[in-house]
Amino acid sequence: MLRPRLIHLALLAALLWGGEYLRRDCWEPDEARVAYVAREMAQDGQWLVLHRHGEYYAHKPPLLYWLINLFSLATTLPVGRLTVRLPGFCAGLLTLWTTARLAERWAGTKAAWPAALTLLTTYLFWHEIGFARPDGLLLGWTTGALALLFWNDDEPAAWKPVLAWTFMGLGILTKGPVGLIVPAGAYAAARLAAGEGRLLRKSHWFWGPLLALALPAAWLGLVWWTGSPEGYLRELLIGQNVERAAGGLGHLQPFYYYLPSVAGDWMPWTLALPTAALVLFRDPDRRRLLRRLGGWIGFIVLFFSLLPTKRNVYVLGAAPAFAILIGSAWPVLDAGAFRWARFARGAFMVLLLVAGFGLLAAGCWPRLPIAGWTLWPAGLVALAGGASLWYELRWRTPPTFFLLAALVWLVAEAAVGVFVYPAVNPLKTPVALA
Fold it and tell me: What pTM value is reported for the model?
């Protein structure tokens, strides 16, 4: 099987998000706020301290807004629906590429495409890369840093940890301390869970965090030196980090919040998760891979579960490990050699059929706030896909069941971006950004 090259992944990503990027406006609250802040940065020339409607905006560091203006300059397009999403698109492409490479290294070439397609069609990944928020950009830095540290263990080179810790510094400049804590912690947990703790004995643990912290420190130093607005640094460092982590800014959820959240947000592939984990556990040669991926996922989910403040996007950094886990088990899942594998195949078929009928029925509801016909393309794709999967199940060992399922899901999501999202524009777009 051919390995997925960057150009292949870019074409698939353009198919999935291209229509959405071009046809969907900047929705409120998050995308509209990002666009307003980035636009105000360029208009007022306030490149160090973010502002919104003339008042300082300390909720996030500035890297996303710098990149939006950089893409606006490079494309000669105004800050709007396309330029605000290009940083996230590039981050998503980096995440897809590194996920495929890690899958290839750990589970063989045959796992690279399945891992990439699994990630590409996982709901939370599709949603966040489609929306202009810091979480998609942060995922790119996180996954890139993790991949570089793992690759450095196999083939040491001085530039790999340097670039990895630089990525973590850029992650801090994107969304605060989690840009360092999540990749460093997930990497260490993955190695320890797999019984590979000896690989953690590297000198970069001494100088790497200092390198990562140097980037936000340089920015904060410039902010202080140029005269930051009164209260800005305190709100940025204390209010938006310490108080937010302690639950002072809302989003309070119980400890078990991520159990149902992950089950829904990682659809449709959560239907195959128990089976994929069982496949790897039953194979002694791949049991260590299961533990490594479990350490990666487990650290991120447990870390954010311990914090009072919880949101579903916080655990997005675990999605690449989840995709590798599912993708590495695709051949056994296709074969349906045991009951749980057959259940996973049947569940995919039923989900697509139910989704197809549901979308077509919803399109006929007279009180629907958008044009009903916009739901029909995605509904028809889902129905056709479910029927195709039923035909595949007629074979005793269908060799392409989950490949077909992933492609159907990808086209259905693309149809949502092209037809459904633009129909929602009048309901979600501020007039000034319409």
Answer: 0.93
